UniProtKB/TrEMBL annotation:
The keyword Isomerase applies. One of its GO terms (molecular function) is alanine racemase activity. One of its GO terms (cellular component) is cytosol. Gene3D superfamilies: Alanine racemase. This is Alanine/ornithine racemase family PLP-dependent enzyme. Its cofactor is pyridoxal 5'-phosphate. CDD domains: PLPDE_III_AR_like_1.
Amino acid sequence: MAFIQLYRKKLQENYTFLNAIFESRNIEWGIVSKLLCGNKIYLKEIIDLGTHEILDSRVSNLRKIKAIAPNVQTVYIKPPAKRSIESIVKYADVSFNTEIYTIQMLSKEAQKQNKIHKIIIMIEMGDLREGVMGEELIEFYGKIIQLPNIEISGIGTNLNCLSGVMPTQDKLIQLSLYKQLIEAKFNIQIPWVSGGTSVAIPLILKNARPMAVNHFRVGEALFFGKDLFTNQTIEGMHDDVFKLFTEIIEITEKPNIPTGELGENVAGNTFSMQDSKDLSTTSLRAIIDIGLLDMQPQYLEPEDPEISIIDASSDMLVIDISKSKTAYKIGDLISFKIKYMGALYLLNSNYIDKTIA
């Protein structure tokens, strides 16, 4: 059976690296755990790192975190759905919000549960996902500031997740100006200005972050050490906290061109014959025990550089091992480095074992 493995020491070293960066700049930060898809084994690993705050987009995952570590601050990082209000107030200490009606419901539910529920007001800054429009922010703030059992802990923005808009210094300065505007208008102090996710870390490393931006939400950089501006690994970090292992279940020399009338395969693709010379060629193909039900091939990179991925069906992945210097046999493991979205697919699959090394 295929399995994904988390390397504890590499995770710890990535955490220590990031924590030193944030602490030296007086920045608060939390770990975004949504990649882990609520896996209790892995959730415990990030709790054991010593983090005081975990953020997730699934309330069921926050419930598991509270069961393991009740004192960890939990943050729900998307606008709450109406039918989830009760559980969000119960399991999330903080939630990200963009709708007055939703915040009013949170207020009523927090009163029922005799709790103070903290909120972050998300502001639209160009990526066109969630966020209050800037010109409506003051009026919006005025309508929620006196709601009972609601504590406005800060403002924030989300960039790069939908349209690919990058968190430049100018964007974060603009976010800082919104803080100043609100504080001056309402004579209050805003504790948090949440400047974004892993994609903003290069700005921090260059000391290009406005000082008012004092909170970040980090997931991808922790698990993959990635600089999302350059797509390179941040120097001093590991890009292989996770690794996928799959087992070979067939090895056979086969033609490179299918025979017979061609139609769409299970993924809706049709085979295209690129080069007529391939008609007479063959390759040594191996089938491994993972398929589209668990992953997408474009997010996997074989650790053996001489292996190439051919294609996948629902439960099997076909690879070309013709050029490999390793004499593979049935039962051998093929390992892969994984990209962020690849790990998300794998960790969400009930058919992939999750282990720790």
